Amino acid sequence: MTQHQSHHKAHHDRPHRHHYDAEMLSVEEARERILSYFERLEPSEVDLLDALDMVLAEDLVAPFDVPPMANSAMDGYAVVASDLAAASETSAIELPVAFSVAAGQVPDVTLKPGSVARIMTGAPVPDGADSVVPFEDTDELERRKNGAQGEDRIGLKLAAQPGDNIRQAGEDIAAGEVVLKAGTLLRPGAIGVAASLGRNSVQAYRRPIVAIISTGDELLNPGEDHQPGKIYNSNAYSIAAEVKRYGAVPLMAGIARDTIDSLQERLAEALETADMVVTSAGVSKGDYDVVKDVLAKNGEIALWSVRMRPAKPLAFGTLDADDGRKVPHLGLPGNPVSAMVAFEQFGRPAIHVMMGRNEMQKPSVRAVLDDPVNNYDGRRVYARVVVYRSDSGGLRARTTGTQSSGALTSMAVANGLAICPDDVAKIDAGETVDVEMLDWPDEVFSGFGP
Ligand code: AMP
Ligand code: MG
Questions:
Q1: Three-class SS of residue 191?
Q2: Domain assignment present for 185
């Protein structure tokens, strides 16, 4: 069952229902169409630490056993277990200490029965030894108290069994084994595994470059002096921040004025390197909304009404780059909240596809609403909420003030988007809703590997 269907089911018994406009695309339909234009990008060699949260593009094969040799799991004494059959807490067996092995050393002496070797954690177990007796099971402490310096003899109080306190060669990973398959998401543990195989870089599907162009005669860049009639270009920053959060590389491609020339100039620059172009504003029906005209001329464009609130108007298409590539273009609405919510629903999964990830659904939780969410016109509502744990332990969701699509502060403090389905007119306070968690990584399982 898709997420979409589950919303319907969850709200089946609600009294407030209305019909939605079937001419508009659902979020799922729009997303499916958009994602059909994207594919996984090529792999590149990435410095190990930079590969965090990328998807592995090669099988990682162990060139050697891990651990590479049998080694001690404890600080203590390497012994021949059969020497100690009669040892116990009350009757120590005293043996000569023949030599000692530290971590990183390779002992070239064989341990002879009737003697022991002092050994440190991680040090290779010498030939001849088959067990390690930890310090705690010897009389070393008593000897020290009595002033002994380097021990040439030691009392052992444990009837050691062969294999005790020894980590065998290849116990974790055997040479030749595929340790991590191509397609694995590189979590911190996977980065560690690659390092343990001696790798300082890996092949991973590369991060897309996402060019961001804002359009509008009213826009000023942050840092410029405030001017009457103008507003600051916040969309480029909120969208670039989302691009970064989802692992891609934002390319700040500037502001285009509401003229065809200006937009074409910005686009030409962006298309030199971008894997995807995101524009904001200029896709509604106003006189100065030139984005649609330019795109129709320089590529292929579809303008859609998506059955969602905020962010009904959405443009999507491809742009022709000089080198012949067709670069996908996502045209976001200009309203700051609409731009962000639309990017979450359509831009984020596109980045995931390019990076080789296959989980598209934002993880959601069920939470009890503190205040009602209204749906005036049969679109899916994404209400900005703060999800918090109530005193009784359950999750609750409080809306973040005005739900106007221009009020970016409502998005700034929100950690979730509460969903009111297309065909539900109102969800009352006290009812339970699905909330997409904005700050959580994508789904419980990501990557197509194990
Ligand atoms: P438009 O889609 O051009 O009609 O813009 C819708 C609303 O979003 C208008 O109030 C614009 O001023 C505003 N807006 C457009 N672009 C941006 C931007 N880059 N940053 C902040 N607000 C914007
Ligand atoms: Mg405009």
A1: helix
A2: yes
Give whole-number Cα distances, 297 to 258, 290, 318, 411, in Å. Answer: 16, 11, 11, 34
Same domain, 196 and 61: yes
The finding on whether 220 has its CB within 6 A of some atom of ligand 1 is no
> Does pLDDT of 447 surpass 60?
no
- Per residue in 97-126, pLDDT (tens digit) is 999 999 898 999 999 999 999 999 999 999
183/198 same-domain check: yes
| pLDDT, tens only, 185-194 | 999 999 999 9
Looking at ligand 1, which atom is closest to the CA of residue 284?
A: 2
pTM of the full structure: 0.86
pLDDT at 56 over 50: yes
What number does the ligand 1 atom closest to the CA of 258 have?
3
Per-residue CA distances from 255 to 27, 33, 270, 306, 307 (Å): 28, 28, 12, 26, 28
- For residue 259, give its domain range: 27-41+206-355
Task: Kindly indicate the confidence band of residue 295, based on its pLDDT and cuts at 50, 70 and 90.
Answer: confident
3-state SS assignment for residue 106: coil
Nearest atom in ligand 1 to 289's CA: 3
Distance of CA 331 to the CA centre of its chain: 25
Cβ contact 242:250 at 8 Å? no
- Residue 233 CB–ligand 1 contact under 6 Å: yes
Listed residues 330, 355, 380: the one ending a domain:
355
**293 and 252, same domain (yes or no):** yes
How far apart are the CA of 429 and the centre of ligand 2, in A? 36
Ligand 1 centre and the CA of 173: distance in Å? 55
Q: For residue 81, what is the domain's CATH number?
A: 2.170.190.11
282/339 same-domain check: yes
| 213, 226, 280, 294: residue to mutate for ligand 1 pocket, most atoms within 8 A of CB | 280
Q: What average pLDDT does the segment 359-382 reach?
A: 91
Q: Is 50 helix (H, G, I), strand (E, B) or coil?
A: helix
Is any ligand 1 atom within 6 A of the Cβ of residue 282? yes
